[in-house]
Amino acid sequence: MPRRSILLFAGAIVAMAVAIGVSTWVVISQRGQESDTVTFTETGTGTGQPQVGGPFQMVNQDGQTVDQTMLDGKWSLVFFGFTYCPDFCPTTLAALAATKAQLGDKADDVQVVFITVDPARDTPQAMKDYLSSDGFPEGVIGLTGTPEQVRATADAYRAYYSQVGEGEGYTMNHSLTVYLMGPDGKFRAPLAHDLGPQQAADVIERNMARG
Length: 211
Hints:
7-stranded mixed β-sheet, two-stranded antiparallel sheet, alpha+beta, 5 helices, 36% helix
């Protein structure tokens, strides 16, 4: 191969390696942020909706085994977090309570589902105690389970989480997207954690109008 061709080929390989390295760094950097929010486009399936949600089996805060059919017949706001979360989880749950207040009578058709990403500490009783806190949505459903059940459910919803640190003081990084699921148990829209109660209520109402 001529020397010029060799140099051009080598240069192309180096450029590809740099591009791959940069994209990998971006992914790793984003996953290191607790405020990481999953984003979706409403494309990718025959229905115009991304593949989010699906079969799962977990345990609610009353110790009862539940599956994806618990979403049937209600509009659901599904959120992943953990009870030891110092800021994002309590503020998001409080924001969802405010969102339901904005919905008025329509809030009767909306349930909030809080799924832990920390099953080692978030037992059903721990979830029950935490979710009874003032300022959280009334009747919010807490779900926990084995590490395998939590991982399978998070994967179905494209929710990211990882443990940070060791010992009793560890914390969890996790994505903050709230998933709006329809009464048929299928995904309708993502709600960003910083959307605000009024805008979140508007998104829910628009989707309710579409059915």
